[in-house]
Amino acid sequence: MPNTKITGLGYYVPENVVTNKEMEGWMDTSDQWIQERTGIKERRYVTRHEEGTSSMGAKAARIAIERAGIDKEDIDFIVFATLSPDYFFPGCGVLMQRELGITKTEIGALDVRTQCTGFVYGLSVADQFIKSGMYKTILLVGAETHSMGLDYTTAGRDVTVIFGDGAGAAILQATEEEGGVLTTKLHSNGTFAEELAMINPGSHGGYHGDVEKYGYNDSAKYGDTFISQKMLDDGMLYPQMHGQLVFKHAVVKFPEVIKESLDEAGLTAEDISLLVPHQANLRISQFVQRRLGLRDDQVWNNIQKYGNTTAASIPIALTEAWEAGKVNPGDLVCLAAFGSGFTWASALIRWM
Q1: What was the pLDDT predicted at 223?
Q2: How far apart are CA 63 and CA 147, in angstroms?
Q3: Which residue among 45, 189, 198, 208 is the one 20 to 30 A from 14 at the CA level?
Q4: What is the reported pTM?
Q5: Which domains does the chain possess?
């Protein structure tokens, strides 16, 4: 059975830097308040009407393809992870495929919608395809355009200050050598689904909760329920987050799922060369680092510069770490994420 090797990495972040100081002019917040709670100093936003989720994914993918030393036509399959797609449908996978100009071979494109864990879930899917022998070269992308859907008023500050835009990509290839992706662990629990969610617009029509709470009119007419006037008037078309609850679960599930991967591989936290956590909150990453007993140089954090880019955060951070010489052959690299769903996941990679 072949193993899965990462042969190329790339990332792209927009040129527009938005600092905490700038946000002070939009809402009742402060640089100190944001840094104390999240560790974030600045984030990147797309240039509106010029770039988006699939175009950023394509830019990151081109870099990964070049670094892998392959031709784009060598790609057998695409996995695209995002919670902020260009369109409600079709998904970003086919849009990026078109932008990259790899439609001639008509390869499959799969979109993954597990939010913050999207890249690790996508890695697991790609790994299984390669190990089964179905595909030999897979393009895996995580990309997000949060800036188009945030509430830039004081009412939305707890969520808005956290998120940024960007994309990361990896080329995964089959190899007969020992190493590569050792294990992936995926979990979910929908009990708290609405505690970190963008509920509207949606097709639920209030089915999952009080009709009035979700901004729907009690109407028998079809066509009245996708976006209502109440949603617009009450600012209900934005993501919502119960931050303390998310933090409480994240600091438990992060170390649990990392330990699960380590146990299956017969390894311990002491064997980890580098932990690349999903960049949800610097305080969460620091807590997990302490729980695992890792040094500062064993954890890669870049949320200070980019904010939380959800599905893009791990590939952006992994690429940065690799470019900085922090990822070398023989290293044990651990990826871990927790987020909306709730979903959580981990992966162990023996770098090749």
Answers
A1: 56
A2: 24
A3: 198
A4: 0.96
A5: 3-178 (3.40.47.10), 181-193+241-350 (3.40.47.10)
